[in-house]
Amino acid sequence: xxxxxxxxxxxxxxxxxxxxxxxxxxxxxxxxxxxxxxxxxxxxxxxxxxxxxxxxxxxxxxxxxxxxxxxxxxxxxxxxxxxxxxxxxxxxxxxxxxxxxxxxxxxxxxxxxxxxxxxxxxxxxxxxxxxxxxxxxxxxxxxxxxxxxxxxxxxxxxxxxxxxxxxxxxxxxxxxxxxxxxxxxxxxxxxxxxxxxxxxxxxxxxxxxxxxxxxxxxxxxxxxxxxxxxxxxxxxxxxxxxxxxxxxxxxxxxxxxxxxxxxxxxxxxxxxxxxxxxxxxxxxxxxxxxxxxxxxxxxxxxxxxxxxxxxxxxxxxxxxxxxxxxxxxxxxxxxxxxxxxxxxxxxxxx
Length: 350
What we know:
By secondary structure, the protein is of the alpha+beta class. Helix content is 42%, strand content 24%.
């Protein structure tokens, strides 16, 4: 209760600082007073999280405008997504509908996108199932192109609000330079949001460590209490005249553990004058990685306690992540899947 009161006071202070156009009105009428919840929860990203009372079976309140985050009204555990865009928004928790007073407001555009996406995917699946073979492949390519075109326009038309991030989340674009160009086209306010800052950071990191680029070194104190004795660098292995496969992993990751048997076979087959394999344990304590490597029989060299340093340098957020470096340290392949390792290594080590 204390937390909710503090949030209510904070919201009241925000309301006082806002002008008439700086608030969004949220409304809902429940079928009866008895069926209405006592209060609803309202959240806007990390900006606002509070409870608002339902009076006489009705919700009628104002909240601050915030176009950089999605907002939610939650009644009896049922969330309704919208954007606090300065309009009057009416929620129907029975029919699960939202109506905004601004026909071209951000919430209206959000609802239009969801309706378009539902219709597009329904029609796409029905058409795809009626085709076969080469027809399916051509139709998929055309569908992806149409989908990306719509999303690109959605991002461009909403460069100053959170719908741009929604579009980016769905956009299937394997081109960091193009993605970075889109991100840099957003408004200054959107570029300063944590989520966009993170996307820009990762796109830049991936571009700087793309295939064909020289490796970036990092050094890890595997025991922080003994840094001089336990510090290991990637350059202790990479750029020393051998092909080096680096496997970024963690003991808590099921895919990482499942890949160990195939990694054992690869190490047994290729280890020698031309090839080395190194594990880099991320996002966990060194002791956990050490025990897992021992129990799983990972006999190749390990760099422990790397935490999030490699991910920030090489721009990845999913493990396992595998990168193959050439004898001089050039990045030959990255994002290598387990099923592709044998083929790639057989080609470079022939």
